[in-house]
Amino acid sequence: MITPAAIVAVASSAALVILGLALILTVWRVVAGPTLPDRILALDMLTGIAIGFIAVIAVKTGFSLYIDIAISLGLVGFLATVAFARFVLSRGNIKSKPPATAANGNTQKRRAGGKKR
Amino acid sequence: MIDYIVAAVTALLLIAGAFFALAAAIGLVRLPDLYTRMHSASKAGTVGSGLLLLAAGLYSEDPAILARAIAGFVFFLLTAPVSAHLLARAAHRSGYDLGALSVRDDIRDR
């Protein structure tokens, strides 16, 4: 006879595996994402996957206090995305860069090896 | 009997939520530009984490915890469109182009 706890244990293990796959794909987008907003979007998605992980761990271990942590993580993720959006806005238009500061900043950026886009 | 129903619904919600998150991640990797990726990340991603949270609330069999889980789900449903819209608007205003497959841009001149 299959007990209810066994059903939930199998389902939560499967959910952890699927979420891990989603996490790897999203991390690939954070690393590879060609522009800054792509990375911000992928980081927002990472917060959502982390909330999912926390919920699955809450089911697996029985500590329902984890749900409060998930809610507060959602709040932090929302505020981080809003702050990043304001940052993207405050950098100004990427197509009309003043040449003097761009030439100065380019050497620094190239030495750091970062893709500036 | 009621244990089996709760366990079955919880298992269903767990698997469904995980697959929604996976669909969002696949969309994030496969779609061509920022504005289309935003569709998968902010719709499927939100529903994925929300369903997992709902499963955790349901499995605890405590009304207070279930209410908190539902409140968290509603909170995510309210904040995800706001943050996605802010990011899309900021990116569009800063000059990030649409993908090559896009045919029209309604807010270009605003």
Automatic annotation (TrEMBL), chain A:
The record lists the membrane-crossing segments as 6-28, 40-59, 65-89
Q: Does the keyword Transit peptide apply?
A: no
Gene Ontology cellular-component terms listed: plasma membrane
Q: Which UniProt keywords apply?
A: Cell membrane, Membrane, Transmembrane, Transmembrane helix, Transport
Keyword check for Transmembrane: yes
Q: Where in the cell is it found?
A: Cell membrane
Q: Where is composition skewed (Basic residues) in this entry?
A: 108-117
| Region ranges (Disordered) | 95-117
The membrane topology of this protein is: Multi-pass membrane protein
Q: Which GO terms describe its molecular function?
A: sodium:proton antiporter activity
Q: Which family does it belong to?
A: Belongs to the CPA3 antiporters (TC 2.A.63) subunit F family.
What this protein is called in its record is Cation:proton antiporter
Species of provenance: Rhizobium leguminosarum
From TrEMBL, chain B:
InterPro entries per record: PhaG_MnhG_YufB (IPR005133)
Q: Which UniProt keywords apply?
A: Membrane, Transmembrane, Transmembrane helix
Q: Name one GO molecular function term.
A: sodium:proton antiporter activity
- Tell me the superkingdom of the source: Bacteria
Query: Transmembrane among the record's keywords?
Result: yes
What sections of the protein cross the membrane?
6-29, 65-88
What is the protein name given in its UniProt record?
A: Na+/H+ antiporter subunit G
Q: Which organism is it from?
A: Rhizobium leguminosarum bv. viciae
What taxonomic lineage is listed for the species of origin? Bacteria, Pseudomonadati, Pseudomonadota, Alphaproteobacteria, Hyphomicrobiales
